[in-house]
Amino acid sequence: MITGGAGFIGSHVVRLFVKKYPEYFIANLDALTYAGNLENLRDVENEANYRFEKGDITDEARINELFDQYQFDAVVHLAAESHVDRSILDPLAFVRTNVLGTASLLNACSKHWAGDINRKLFYHVSTDEVYGSLGKEGFFTERTPYDPRSPYSASKASSDHFVMAYHHTYGLPVVLSNCSNNYGSHHFPEKLIPLMINNIKNHKPLPVYGKGENVRDWLWVEDHARAIDTIFHNGKNGEKYNIGGFNEWKNIDIVHLLCNIMDKKLGRAKDESAKLITFVKDRPGHDLRYAIDASKLNKELGWEPSLQFEEGLEKTVDWYLQNEDWVKHVTSGDYQKYYEDQYAKR
Ligand code: NAD
Ligand code: TYD
């Protein structure tokens, strides 16, 4: 079972596993919230080793039904509420899905796998945001103490603790990974990079929080999917692995880079799109800097990122320019309302 497979990262993981492992049967459990979109999986939806199952990870009866039906021997868990700004507007939705949902899945695994725990695995996909915020120096390692500071990161930190608690208390075989910010195709345009691409294209203001000095460590989403594949197959039971691109950027520099790339692609005058940059009120509790030390994953399991950021950003821009219908579909309705609420006050 892969949970959250209709979302941004989940759809890349589903695609990779369905295509690379025809001998696996993969059920994708997803509630199809505003962030889940089956259009993300058009190219695999008819594969013989794949099935979509609509359902909520907090719905224990539904999870038990699926376990009875499929006899899962592994769960790769990505379903989550994933956007920090939404967590500030509605923290309890994050507690519900990220904490209660994860605990419900863990419960189902330990119940259905009781007495036959060998060759089973619960893989929990988490974030570097559980470690809190760095100053100008240093990196997050697997030993960095948890210090979450937003409702999103607090809910993910809590889910990580539940995963380890089920491992220690009930002997559940688990692996866990904490990844830095992802970018690439099929990314919902409420997050920095796709939002800026969409707004540049439509000549809309580019809302940069605060002074744009915050730093994130960006990873190509397909490299994250490859890391999940590596850890799923070769990670050690009970271990956690940091995943990152060794690729730190200030937000304002990314926005300028995107403006330059898009001015060229759209045939605009040099520096035309940068005029859209608008500094807006900062995010409350805005973490200053994230930076991942991914050397454990590199040394122990041989994974490394494959793509340079500038090349990845160009590919990402191309994908958005070639997939205008996708953007139109996901930005209609609910998203419009969120966008107006979120940015009207800034
Ligand atoms: P996303 O918001 O794009 O997708 C989340 C998916 O989960 C959607 O398909 C949604 O429909 C589904 N979902 C939400 N609530 C659900 C519920 N209650 N029951 C079933 N399905 C539900 O998120 P993403 O960016 O693809 O992130 C996937 C995972 O990776 C998350 O666990 C996130 O914390 C983690 N992560 C994300 C990033 C990033 O940069 N996006 C970085 C590190 C880790
Ligand atoms: P985001 O993509 O929401 O990811 P996260 O907060 O999980 O790192 O934001 C990335 C950075 O971009 C973060 O420092 C907040 C900033 N940001 C803006 O400046 N403007 C925006 O409109 C958004 C969505 C984010």
**Average pLDDT score:** 96
Secondary structure tally: strands? 12
Helix fraction? 40-55%
Runs in which pLDDT lies below 50 for 5 or more consecutive residues are: none
Mind telling me the C-alpha Rg? 20 Å
> What is the overall silhouette?
globular
Query: How many helices in DSSP terms?
Result: 12
Percent strand: 15-25%
Give the CA-CA distance, first to last residue.
40 Å
Order of helices and strands: EHEEHEHHEHEEHEEHEEHEHHHH
Structure report:
- It is a single chain.
- With 346 residues, the protein is α/β, with parallel strands linked by helices.
- Helix content is 43%, strand content 15%.
- It contains twelve helices and twelve strands.
- It has helices at 8-20, 60-70, 84-89, 91-112, 151-170, 192-201, 221-234, 251-265, 295-301, 309-322, 324-330, 334-344, and strands at 2-3, 26-30, 50-54, 74-77, 121-127, 174-179, 181-183, 206-209, 215-220, 240-243, 248-250, 277-280.
- The strands form three sheets. It has a seven-stranded parallel beta sheet with strand order 3-2-1-4-5-6-10, sandwiched between helices. A three-stranded mixed beta sheet has the order 7-9-11.
- Helix 6 (192-201) packs parallel to helix 8 (251-265).
- The N and C termini lie far apart (40 Å).
- 42% of the residues are buried.
- The mean pLDDT is 96.
